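User: I'm writing a tutorial on reading structure tokens. Could you give me a worked example: one chain, its sequence, then its tokens, then a sentence or two explaining what the tokens reveal?
Assistant: Sure. Here is the example chain.
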Amino acid sequence: MTSTPSSSSSSCCGVSRGSGGPSAESPLTPSGGTVPSLDGMLLLPGGPFLMGTDDQEGFPADGEGPVREVTLRPFRIDPCTVTNEQFQTFVKETGYKTESETFGWSFVFHLLVAEADKPGVSSAAQQTPWWWAVEGADWQHPFGPSSDLAGLMEHPVTHVSWTDANAYCRWAGKRLPTEAEWEYAARGGLVQKRYPWGDLLKPDGQHRCNIWQGKFPEKNNLSDGYLGTAPAQSFPPNGYGLYNMSGNVWEWCSDWFSPDWHRKGPRRDPKGPDRGDKRVMRGGSFLCHKSYCNRYRVGARSSNTPDSASSNIGFRCAADA
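And here are its predicted structure tokens:
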């Protein structure tokens, strides 16, 4: 196995495909069948809230702070991330081909790679060698080409790039949330708390999210019950009724990423900078661990190139009210 020089990461549980390569071009108009409606989306009232964090556990270089008041218009957001079942419907209706399928490979966390597929591992990410580039891995084959979605239909779809997520949203008559909308929704009405449920990671000793327990990246003691993803509707929802806003899978937002744009950017319905080379991801994933990637906090941020995909990246949809 060789290292992949172009692969880099801003955190232990993220990995970038790198620039270049073909993009997925597929029709977004369903050929018969039913396009999902806005039924089931949560209507949030918007208004002012305190965005960002100056938490001592944070990463100032990521642009987590300073704390500032941001005001949002009302908007809708899905209570859960898009599932494999929902994405399968989209693909059946449109014939869409994801970027991982176009590239012919995707990044799989090393402990998840199917045994039969290990010979197909072409390389590992240079800075994060626990990420293996597996030929034939994609949303339908999340652990390698010999794997499938059996038992995973209610789990978040993974191995989807920002481009893929945006395509699904367009088909569904929705959109990706802005970073400000995502954080407002994740906070669930709480003010400047570290997690969607408060400041304690495990209130009353109970797990409230799917993250890594043990010694990363070799040993996960599975005390929360999961090595990989959990079902999209797992653990108690936050105060607004949203599930898994911490951990499970990173969630794409619509914004281009910048560590400092927000310092002088608008405070009303901010949408991020006009251009960039990476898109915002929020929420952390099942690989986050306090000793490495303490980015499952509500105020934490990360980013990735729009063509990147891996075992721990998914998305949820938003819509105008």
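What the tokens reveal: Residues 178 and 271 are 6 Å apart (CA to CA). The helical segments are 84-94, 99-103, 162-171, 179-187, 261-264.
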